[in-house]
Amino acid sequence: MRKYLFILFLSYSHFSFAQLFNDEAKLALVKRTVDYIYNVQEDSALLYIDSVKFQLPNHPVVPMLKGMKILWENIPLVTVDSIFRKFRHEMNEVIKLAGRMDGERQEHPEAIFFEMAARGLLAEYYADDDQYMKAVGEASKTYQLLKLGFDLQEEVPEFLFTSGLYNYFREKYPERYPVYRSFVWLFRSGDIEKGLEQLQKASDVTVISRVEATVYLAYIYLRYEYKPLKAQKYLYNLQRQYPNNLYINAKLLESYADGKNFDKVDLTTVDRLLASDRPYYQLAGKAFQGLYHEQIRKDYESALKHYKEAISAGSNIQGHGEYYRSLTYLGMGRIYYAQGDYRNAEYHLRKSLEYQPTQVIEEEAEGLLDLI
Q1: Nearest CA among 116, 205, 197 for reference residue 156
Q2: Looking at the chain, which terminus has fewer C-beta neighbours within 10 angstroms, N or C?
Q3: Each residue of 246-258: pLDDT tens digit?
Q4: 171 by DSSP, 3-state: which?
Q5: CA 296 to CA 277: how far, in whole Å?
């Protein structure tokens, strides 16, 4: 669940009230800063963060923006020691400054959001780094803050997003992973349909949480509801706004990955991934390049070449890129099966099942294995 919590708690950093949210000029400045962060424009983001600091000195929004910048420049490899130390420092600054706003009362909505954001993100990345005791401590404090937002949706529509995520995943996650059912009773019940409605409304009517609500709706339709065309609509609009964001580019390509409409892919999206010097996006780009040659050009030799390059590009990535590996091995398995090389087909299809495949990939791989 860590990966899902990442986007959930990142989103909280965008909200602020009283000192910030009710000041349209300052809010516009923060929104512009966030846009540069999402579009991974480092120089402009730094310039605008400095402007926010000038307007809002000693405010938790400043270290939060710095932390967001670190995240989006390095996603998903944030737990590398040198990166995480910088990120952790900024989150601790957020907690300290939020505490000065509200003390121990937990009544100030702005302070609640920023402390919740910082603690949630720390829990996420402590867990990602296998520091489970620290992760549990931060997650417990985060949940207590999250509960305070359940009754604030009418007063503050931005809470539609946080409540929507909770309502959806409180029920959906243990439904998909039954092993978690034994302890979710500790948390208040959710509502899948209500959660989706809240997220959609947040995507339509909120100001600050719009992008995160849209990203998360797309992710849900890709990985949980298996409705890639719905995800595609959201991701296409986001990509137009943030073309430099490689994460959004990769997710947009995933929405085409069932092969039924991969011919409609704008190949410049693949090129953006391939142009990155980061192995994670090389892995993703080569996987989609292989899929294009397999599904559209029917050039199996070129497809195998790109698929093998994808595996090589991601060979040193630990704990990330499982989806792209699974997609790649499935593609190779399909090709070997079509060529009558059943030994290689079986090997690669079984490999695709080792990397936490989506239900769609799992069903296709198992279906082909049954034919061998």
Answers
A1: 205
A2: C
A3: 999 999 999 998 7
A4: helix
A5: 26
